[in-house]
């Protein structure tokens, strides 16, 4: 990981509430632990459940 990438990833890609998120990135291994290097992230729209109408 380069010095440019060090920081809080949530500052660049904040998670806003419960929901389904699309996360695009690359799985990397740091200190023997897998993590995701996020390229982009966004909240996905949900279709309403017709059973609840």
Explain what this protein looks like in three dimensions:
This protein has a domain at 19-44. Strand 1 and strand 2 (33-43) form a beta hairpin. It is built from one helix and two strands, in the order H-E-E. The protein is elongated, with a radius of gyration of 15 Å. A two-stranded antiparallel ribbon has the order 1-2. Helix content is 8%, strand content 40%.
What layout of secondary structure does this protein have?
Layout: H1 9-12, E1 21-30, E2 33-43
Strand order, main sheet: write it out.
1-2
Number of alpha- plus pi-helical segments:
1
Main sheet summary: 2 strands, antiparallel
What structural class do helix, strand and pairing data support? mainly beta
User: Termini, distance in Å?
Assistant: 49 Å
Taken from the alpha-carbon principal axes, the silhouette is: elongated
Order of helices and strands: HEE
How big is the Rg? 15 Å
Mean pLDDT reading: 80
Q: Total number of β-strand segments?
A: 2
Measured by DSSP, the beta-strand proportion falls in: 35-45%
List low-confidence stretches. Answer: none
How much helix, percentage-wise, in residues? under 10%
């Amino acid at each position: 990981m380069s010095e440019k990438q060090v920081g809080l990833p949530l500052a660049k890609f904040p998670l806003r509430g419960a929901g389904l998120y699309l996360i695009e990135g690359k799985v990397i291994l740091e200190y023997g632990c897998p993590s995701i290097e996020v390229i982009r992230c966004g909240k996905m729209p949900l279709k309403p459940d017709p059973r609840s109408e």
